[in-house]
């Protein structure tokens, strides 16, 4: 393929895109001559170049389209059908161009269908058309052209030009009467009328004469166009590399200059330094492009859909000039188009539906972009019906992603997130044209792959808003340079929340929970991972005995916060991200590498990779028994209520939940800044399950109600997702008081909520319970082999007014009982590996004394006559089913009424 | 280097090819000159934690980050003593540049088919995979390394 053809292809593709967008604008504003002129010029250029390059098929087709557009200029009414037809022609042109690009030659085939349709439309006698017969005459047969037009529009000249370059069935030109307000043009055109009336040949000569005329008309615009040139991306990349190297060299020079007293070259060096900096800036800028480039195709997409679905849709674009990196732009182009398509297709209701709903007949899709810190936010908002949650629910069930029961309990925003589920992608449809959610998983993946985030907000009947946040550029990021294990690393600044200096002793020090390093940060525990041990493949656990000093880089990835322990922190630096070598790409800890100002290569740490390692570290922990016991998993089947709050899945044991409610958010009242709701004749306080949850002011609000005696509390959640019965593998997290830990439920990472954290938020005195008056709460020993159940029951028991000690085995329990004389009651699980609960109680009774009489409440999964008999024999006060929380509390209450020493 | 390249083109007519010789310990190896882009002293190597053993780190080669690969480790030989001098050969594969770290670089040899022998079958399997031929020289043997094979490691890991 020669260069000329290649250039033609690039240029034509661009022109066609512009024409697409312009046509849509023109359809809405048919009187705008500027737009029409622009379209006309572009199509004309394509046609002209095709003729020049010997591409007859393209030329003929473009010519036919041009004819029709010529009629528009003459006042032929712009109808939706005609625009559709032209757009279809443009699509055909694009298809041919694509083949041309692939094959190097114009593909065979006929465009007779389109040409006929275009001609037919051009010839349509449009009475309403202003300059009556002239335009019709123009575009058709020789015979008709000989009719002299009665009147001539201002655009007549250009039309003449158009004729001149048309295919060779060209006819005599129409006469060109003088145009009063443009003497220059008249001069140039003057010979034309004479020639025209004389012979056909004149046409050939006509063209060059007319050309300058058009040029004058377009001169200003052309000049504008010439200010930009096309540069190969590789050239730019190379330039970028060279500038980086220049910067390095300059830095070296500056370093040398600092050491020398000789000032004679300091001034030119200073100058060199400035120029280099500016050059670097300039080169960086070449990578930036307005986001409007990615939006260019969208008006056309929306228009086509609007026609296809026969509903009025307006696309409003705000902030098209917002600049971002070329590379990012390329990556978001398709996802954006897809999402706008989806909004038009499914977001916006049919006109009838809209009118019925009392909305304006035409829907609006609003696309906006703006800078926000180092990121760019893009919003795609429609004022349509909101997501069809019912359909999504059905689909989720059909696809087997969730059960019927599950989806019914799920709240809206959770259901909305289903559209990002891969199961929805291949789908045949939620609604008619293409499924909302088709490919949304790809959209999400694409956006996340460049470090972006996507969020949905949807309101029934009011519309859906997708918000995408992406980094401005992938090429240049601000990074914190740190040192660990004698080597420097770059940590992307975007993940860094703060820096904390760590000393071996003092308030800011690293403490250890069974070897796992943590740090107190403003009343929270922050899990710490040491960068140098991570780099040694140690999952971030630092040597247990060495006192740790240095700095902790507090990082946040998604909702996960953790500290990265480093030896030294230097400075922040704008770095150019270079991709990792293909041999090293599999290492999850690195996002790339870069060359620093001093010429050294450093690795860029990937906070996502570290976040994952931190999680794994918590699971694998130290090899010691206790570590396994504390950090790992207890395999227990539990029934949990899963809900969504603050962007993540959370769960509470169903046994603790009194009720699940959907309330009308309008009924929420605020008293002294605290939200309350009238619930069953009483006021019930509401507490958000996560600080990130906003209590809704309209629509419905999902609540999880907990009650204790006559008190009730509503935990505000975004939506109820599911009830899951599953084996739990809980990983304990230390840094959040509102969570017990996290577990994987149905393949989703889910936080297990510690209800005891919320109860005091609702009632200040709840934690102290009704026994608050007592000087000291009785101490209870909870014996259960499962860490999960211990964590689960501890808050319940605390809420019931006990100090709680725990033990993981019968042996453990006996040890604790012997050492702690305060223990006044034992709650023991009967089914434990090794020595069972019965064994424990038997041992206690056998020992006699205090332990012999200590009241015991036994927990059991199965309560049969046999176990009851056995329990009686051992003077067990009560036997309670394992999940029967209120039963346990009641049993404790009964104990309480009896004097403790006689309880047995 | 350029002169050598031209020679290579001319020589190929007579079946002779140019090889850059490199040393690792006592052994001498030949690398097809067409694939060699640079010979330089590696300095300021940034080691990459958790990387495959063969990779010694990353080097800034005139503004490009190149992945340095240790020929000794690739051949399964012990590491050179600390502080010993080394030389690197710049190789391109695909769009990436690699630096092959060797003990030293020797002269460019023009070798014809008459001294060429197939790789002996009793060679260590690792070497057999990396070698494409052996040339009989005066007093010593020159093992020709297959650069593509040399750079084909860690693929399974990367996948």
From TrEMBL, chain A:
Ranges of biased composition (kind: Low complexity): 190-201
Any one GO biological process: chemotaxis
Location of the Response regulatory domain: 779-896
One GO CC annotation: cytoplasm
Pfam families per record: CheW, H-kinase_dim, HATPase_c, Hpt, Response_reg
Described function: Involved in the transmission of sensory signals from the chemoreceptors to the flagellar motors. CheA is autophosphorylated; it can transfer its phosphate group to either CheB or CheY.
Protein name: Chemotaxis protein CheA
From TrEMBL, chain B:
Domain CheW-like: 16-156
Natural source organism: Methylobacterium gnaphalii
Gene3D superfamilies: CheA-289, Domain 4 (2.40.50.180), SH3 Domains (2.30.30.40)
Pfam families reported in the protein's UniProt record: CheW
Name by which UniProt lists this protein: Chemotaxis protein CheW
Gene behind this protein: cheW
Single GO cellular component term: cytosol
Annotated InterPro entries: CheW, CheW-like_dom_sf, CheW-lke_dom
Top-rank taxon, per record: Bacteria
GO terms under biological process: chemotaxis; signal transduction
């Amino acid at each position: 393929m020669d260069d000329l053809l290649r250039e033609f292809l690039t240029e034509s593709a661009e022109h066609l895109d512009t024409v697409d967008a312009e046509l849509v604008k023109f359809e809405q504003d048919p009187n705008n001559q500027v737009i029409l002129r622009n379209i006309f010029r572009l199509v004309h250029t394509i046609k002209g170049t095709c003729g020049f390059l010997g591409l007859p098929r393209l030329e003929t087709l473009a010519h036919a389209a041009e004819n029709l557009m010529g009629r528009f200029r003459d006042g032929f009414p712009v109808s939706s059908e005609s625009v559709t037809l032209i757009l279809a022609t443009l699509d055909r042109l694009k298809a041919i161009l694509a083949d041309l690009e692939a094959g190097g030659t114009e593909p065979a085939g006929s465009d007779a269908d389109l040409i006929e349709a275009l001609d037919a439309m051009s010839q349509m006698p449009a009475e309403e058309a202003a300059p009556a017969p002239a335009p019709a005459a123009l575009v058709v047969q020789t015979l008709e052209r000989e009719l002299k037009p009665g009147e001539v529009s201002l655009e007549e000249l250009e039309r003449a030009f158009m004729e001149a370059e048309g295919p060779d069935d060209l006819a005599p030109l129409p006469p060109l009467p003088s145009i009063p307000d443009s003497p220059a043009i008249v001069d140039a055109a003057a010979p034309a009328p004479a020639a025209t009336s004389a012979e056909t040949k004149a046409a050939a000569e006509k063209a060059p004469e007319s050309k300058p005329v058009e040029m004058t008309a377009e001169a200003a615009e052309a000049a504008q166009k010439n200010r930009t040139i096309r540069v190969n991306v590789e050239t730019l990349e190379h330039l970028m590399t060279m500038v980086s190297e220049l910067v390095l060299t300059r830095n070296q020079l500056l370093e040398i200059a600092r050491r020398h007293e000789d000032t004679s070259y300091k001034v030119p060096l200073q100058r060199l330094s400035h120029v280099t900096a500016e050059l670097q800036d300039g080169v960086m800028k070449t990578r930036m492009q307005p986001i409007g480039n990615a939006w260019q195709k969208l008006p056309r997409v929306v228009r086509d859909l609007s026609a296809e679905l026969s509903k009025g849709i307006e696309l409003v674009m705000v902030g098209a000039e917002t600049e971002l990196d070329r590379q990012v732009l390329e990556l978001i182009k398709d996802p954006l188009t897809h999402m706008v398509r989806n909004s038009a297709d499914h977001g916006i209701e049919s006109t009838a539906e809209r009118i019925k709903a009392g909305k304006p007949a035409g829907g609006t899709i609003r696309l906006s972009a703006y800078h926000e810190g180092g990121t760019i936010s893009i919003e795609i908002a429609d004022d349509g019906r909101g997501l069809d949650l019912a359909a999504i629910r059905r689909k989720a069930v059909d696809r087997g992603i969730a059960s019927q029961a599950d989806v019914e309990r799920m709240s809206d925003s959770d259901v909305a997130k289903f559209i990002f589920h891969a199961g929805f992608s291949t789908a045949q449809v939620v609604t008619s044209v293409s499924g909302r959610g088709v490919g949304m998983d790809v959209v999400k993946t694409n956006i996340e792959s460049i470090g972006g985030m996507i969020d949905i907000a949807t309101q029934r009947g009011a519309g859906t808003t997708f918000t995408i946040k992406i980094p401005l550029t992938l090429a240049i990021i601000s990074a914190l340079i740190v040192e660990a294990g004698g080597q420097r690393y770059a940590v992307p600044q975007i993940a860094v929340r703060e820096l904390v200096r760590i000393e071996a002793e003092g308030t800011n020090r690293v403490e250890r929970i069974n070897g796992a390093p943590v740090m107190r940060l403003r009343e929270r525990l922050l899990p710490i991972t040491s960068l140098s041990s991570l780099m040694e493949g140690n999952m971030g656990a630092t040597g247990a005995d060495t006192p740790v000093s240095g700095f902790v880089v507090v990082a946040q990835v998604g909702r996960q916060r953790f500290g990265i322990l480093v030896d030294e922190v230097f400075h922040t630096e704008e770095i150019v991200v270079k991709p990792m070598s293909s041999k090293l790409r599999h290492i999850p800890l690195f996002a790339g590498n870069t060359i620093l100002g001093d010429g050294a290569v450093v690795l860029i740490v990937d906070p996502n990779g570290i976040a994952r390692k931190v999680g794994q570290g918590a699971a694998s922990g130290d090899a010691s028994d206790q570590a396994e016991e504390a950090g790992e998993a207890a395999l227990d089947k539990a029934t949990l209520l899963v809900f969504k709050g603050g962007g993540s899945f959370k769960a509470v044991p169903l046994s603790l939940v009194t009720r699940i409610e959907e309330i009308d958010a309008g009924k929420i009242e605020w008293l002294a800044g605290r939200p309350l709701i009238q619930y069953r004749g009483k006021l019930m306080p509401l507490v958000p399950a996560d600080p990130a949850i906003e209590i809704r002011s309209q629509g419905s609000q999902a609540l999880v109600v907990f009650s204790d005696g006559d008190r009730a509390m509503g935990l505000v959640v975004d939506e109820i997702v599911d009830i899951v019965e599953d084996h739990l593998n809980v990983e304990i997290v230390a840094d959040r008081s509102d969570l017990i830990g996290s577990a994987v439920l149905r393949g989703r990472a889910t936080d297990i909520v510690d209800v005891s954290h919320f109860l005091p938020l609702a009632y200040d005195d709840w934690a102290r319970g009704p026994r608050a008056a007592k000087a000291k709460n009785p101490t209870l020993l909870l014996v259960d082999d499962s860490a999960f159940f211990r964590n689960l029951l501890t808050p319940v028991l605390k809420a019931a007014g006990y100090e709680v000690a725990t033990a993981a085995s019968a042996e453990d329990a006996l040890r604790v009982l012997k050492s702690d004389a305060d223990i006044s009651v034992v709650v023991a699980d009967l089914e434990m590996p090794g020595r069972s609960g019965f064994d424990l109680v038997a041992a206690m009774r056998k020992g006699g004394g205090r332990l012999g009489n200590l009241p015991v409440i036994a927990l059991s999964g199965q309560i049969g006559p046999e176990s009851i008999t056995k329990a009686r024999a051992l003077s067990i006060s009560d036997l309670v089913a394992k999940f029967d929380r209120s039963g346990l509390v009641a049993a404790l209450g009964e104990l309480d009424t009896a004097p403790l020493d006689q309880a047995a | 280097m350029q002169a050598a390249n031209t020679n290579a083109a001319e020589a190929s007519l007579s079946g002779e090819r140019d090889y850059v010789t490199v040393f690792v310990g006592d052994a001498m190896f030949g690398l097809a000159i067409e694939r060699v882009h640079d010979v330089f002293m590696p300095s300021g190597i940034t080691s990459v934690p958790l990387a495959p053993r063969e990779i010694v780190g990353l080097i800034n080669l005139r503004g490009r980050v190149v992945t340095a690969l240790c020929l000794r480790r690739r051949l399964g030989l012990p590491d050179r003593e600390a502080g010993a001098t080394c030389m690197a050969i710049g190789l391109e594969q695909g769009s990436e540049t690699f630096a092959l770290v060797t003990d030293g670089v020797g002269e460019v040899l023009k070798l014809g088919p008459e001294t060429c022998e197939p790789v002996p079958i009793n060679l260590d399997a690792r070497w057999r995979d990396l070698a494409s031929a052996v040339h009989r020289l005066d007093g010593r043997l020159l093992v020709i390394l297959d650069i593509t094979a040399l750079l084909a490691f860690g693929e399974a890991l990367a996948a």
